[in-house]
Amino acid sequence: MFVASQSKKYLMDQGVVMMSENVLAKTTELNNGVKMPIFGLGVWKTNNSNAANSVFTAIEKGYRLIDTAKQYGNQPGVGAGIQQGLLKTGLNRKDLFVTSKVFNGDVGYQAALKGFKDTMNQLQLDYLDLYLIHWPVDGRYLDTWHALEELYHQGKVRAIGVSNFDTERLQDLMAHCDVTPAVNQLEFNPLNQEKDIRQLMQLQGIQLEAWSPLGGGESLNEPTIQKLADKYHKTPAQVILQWDIQQGVITIPKSVHEKRIIENSQIGNFELTQEDQAEIAKLDQAKRSLWYEDFAWHDPQNPNGISDVIDQWDDTGKFLPKNK
């Protein structure tokens, strides 16, 4: 087993660049000048109780970016975790960067404005740092965007953006918007690198944010990732997350376990070489786990059909972090 000094010498001998930056303190500047943490916590497929605990733990351990959505059905838990995290750490609301998303059942101008109020009530907040259109519901996303523009101009959200927009829909939105989206949140991981739309986003100054950055765990088992984990003395997850950061991608891995929440953020002390990044780039299969055809609203015969089902969880109803 390597001791710390031996491990560092070994890595330097192997041509590994050692870093000292805390990834939780690193930010990127969005196209409207707002600074956004480049690394944070996601809570998809997390019930309210676990969301409250994971958000509380993340804030306590230094995370400042929290990402949720009405679709996830856990905004009340996230809100409770935020309030308890602020209380425990002595931080202020302005120290956090909170993102939520317009629910598919709330698309359209008036519905989106009402949905925003619901989200604020559930999160126990009076403004959002970033508000995204969760999915581009055909025939509705332009009106929804105009609602987000109004919220932005009113100062109720600091930045607005989209999620899961492909090239065609993003170009359509850009042709009809007054405010350029600041972010497009996409499924992004070694097996799905979204190379085409990233070129368009770079031209427009739109920041890529990765959901499912670990590819639902499938990427972790790739031999290339395993080999690099051995080389850098890191976990496969840490290798992938560091690769995301070096790509300039905002990254929000989900976990409900304190050990994993801490471990995921411990990626500021190494840097992948260009050759290693190129090896990961070769893994791209454009392999999405969820796309338009998986939703009832994406029906060519009924483009305005909307699925209004929110994820439901078997909760106790008590969202406060346990034993805190």
UniProtKB/TrEMBL annotation:
Keywords: NADP, Oxidoreductase. InterPro entries: AKR, Aldo/ket_reductase_CS, NAD(P)_OxRdtase_dom_sf, NADP_OxRdtase_dom. PANTHER family: 2,5-DIKETO-D-GLUCONIC ACID REDUCTASE (PTHR43827), NADP-DEPENDENT OXIDOREDUCTASE DOMAIN-CONTAINING PROTEIN (PTHR43827:SF3). It comes from Ligilactobacillus acidipiscis DSM 15836. PROSITE patterns: ALDOKETO_REDUCTASE_1, ALDOKETO_REDUCTASE_2, ALDOKETO_REDUCTASE_3. Gene3D superfamilies: NADP-dependent oxidoreductase domain. SUPFAM superfamilies: NAD(P)-linked oxidoreductase (SSF51430). This is Aldo-keto reductase. Residues 42-284 form the NADP-dependent oxidoreductase domain. It holds the Pfam family Aldo_ket_red. The keyword Ligase does not apply. The keyword Oxidoreductase applies. Belongs to the aldo/keto reductase family.
